[in-house]
Amino acid sequence: MIVTQQLAELVAACHWIGAKGWCPATGGNMSVRLDGQTCLISESGQDKGCLEAEHFLRVDILSQRVDDHRRPSAETALHTLIYRRDPLVGAILHTHSVNATVLSLAQAGDSLVLNGYEMQKSLAGVHSHLTPVTVAIFDNDQDIAALAERVAARDKLEGLRHGFLVRGHGLYCWGRDVKEARRHLEGLEFLFQCALQRRLLEAK
Ligand SMILES: CSCCC(=O)C(=O)COP(=O)(O)O
Ligand SMILES: [Zn+2]
């Protein structure tokens, strides 16, 4: 029953993301954990703003095996990595917003630091606008397995929290359930917009 409810919430989140314009064309992918071994991941190539429950495929978290003639997301390896590294992650949202795409290109180096914003408190475990939030940035790669290896290596060193950016590509974020993943997505998107607007003002 809980799984059915989580899937219904994920479908609703996909429609909300679509309405926000954060998954244009066929961009983005979304998933929800079923148990310790399996998750449901969106079918590759679909318009993610129009997904329904039947567009999610059951994937083995360890082997990435799928019992279906359809293809799960081309970025499945990133979802399964995130589920493997933290058993408390219950849902993952990957989006292609303009702000995440532009900011990840404009920001030099491998991190974006957000500080001084009350909305940092939309992220689990952050209780003050003075607690800096560091969002890791990874260079994009068409080899998703290679990208997943870089993400795993950095996670081992620093511990990734809430989400990360892929340069010129988009945002991955997660939560213990769909509701929390959605809150993290909305909070991070708000913070990205603030960071970008500030840069534009300061450039004048
Ligand atoms: C124009 S979308 C390019 C692929 C991508 O980055 C993405 O998020 C969607 O891929 P999927 O296989 O999950 O549809
Ligand atoms: Zn993508």
Automatic annotation (TrEMBL):
Lyase among keywords: yes
Record's cofactor remark: Binds 1 zinc ion per subunit.
Swiss-Prot/TrEMBL catalytic activity: 5-(methylsulfanyl)-D-ribulose 1-phosphate = 5-methylsulfanyl-2,3-dioxopentyl phosphate + H2O
EC number(s) reported in the record: 4.2.1.109
One GO BP annotation of this record: pentose catabolic process
Residues holding Zn(2+): H94, H96
Domain Class II aldolase/adducin N-terminal: 8-196
Required cofactor names: Zn(2+)
Pfam families per record: Aldolase_II
GO molecular function, one term: zinc ion binding
Family the entry assigns: Belongs to the aldolase class II family. MtnB subfamily.
Function: Catalyzes the dehydration of methylthioribulose-1-phosphate (MTRu-1-P) into 2,3-diketo-5-methylthiopentyl-1-phosphate (DK-MTP-1-P).
Name of the featured protein: Methylthioribulose-1-phosphate dehydratase
Species of origin: Sodalis ligni
Source lineage: Bacteria, Pseudomonadati, Pseudomonadota, Gammaproteobacteria, Enterobacterales
